[in-house]
Amino acid sequence: MTNAGDVQLTSVILVGGGRMGKLIAQKLDADGGFAVEGIYDVDNADELDGRAPVVDLVIDFSNKAGLPHVLAYVERTGAALVSGTTGFDDEELGRLRALGQKTRVIHSFNYSLGVAALKRACAQAALALGEWDCEIVETHHNKKVDAPSGTAVLLLDAVDPNHECAVAYGREGMVGERPAKEIGMHSLRGGTVAGTHEVHFFGTDEEVCLTHRATSRQIFVNGAVAAAKRLLARKENGFYTFDQLMFE
Questions:
Q1: Which of 55, 138, 188, 190 is deepest in the core (most CB within 10 A)?
Q2: Chain segment 173-203, per-residue pLDDT in tens
């Protein structure tokens, strides 16, 4: 904790100096309960290995290349970690989960409360609609570097939690009839779209489409800071999901 007069502020390191990082820094400053002690990015993430101050909380919205430095810092200092970085593989996600044995950790590909509700709705729809065909379409701005989006991966897990279906990442050529146990995953890129996700369920003569549209990144910023507060309020170490912190 950092003292500001008689007020105890939560000390924070931000990892990620891009658009999300700047918005989060502004949100933390406006909140009044946080003190940002440093901002790092991929080009100087190695400073976390020894020269960075010890803080209460790390918020990481950077590139996956910085993950080893973030993990080492959090393990060394015991700081709580809010991670919103996308593009992690299963091994990297496993390292984040394991870190929950030593401190409080949350990772989510999306910090929108609306997306969290969409995820729950998709899980219920998948149960109710049984053998219907399912396709996921995500659209983002032309600067996004990973595909499919982390949110699309979350939605895929919601509709197929046991990973029983094959995933078709787009289709081309003479692909034949659509297999029953297949989920299509499609990524569109263009303009300045903050994020649109659609989950389509196709039955005989009918279709259900569940959609979430983000009109600005501020929704993810607000959710990340809200999740940080709830994470800090937890007394027990552990790896938490956004759903756990916001709905339980």
A1: 138
A2: 999 999 999 999 999 999 999 999 999 999 9
Query: How is the chain split into domains, by residue range?
Result: 2-107+218-247, 113-214
- Rounded CA gap, 166 and 37, in Å? 45
CA atoms 159, 163, 164, 168: torsion sign: positive
Q: Is 69 a catalytic residue?
A: no
**Which residue is catalytic, options 119, 140, 186, 197?**
140
Per-residue pLDDT reduced to its tens digit, 3-41? 655 568 999 999 998 888 999 999 999 999 999 999 999
CA distance 94 to 45: 21
The structure's pTM equals 0.79
Q: Which CATH number fits domain 2-107+218-247: 3.30.70.250, 3.40.640.10, 3.40.50.720, 3.60.40.10?
A: 3.40.50.720
- Active-site hit among 64, 144, 200, 229: 144
CATH topology of domain 113-214: Dihydrodipicolinate Reductase; domain 2 (3.30.360)
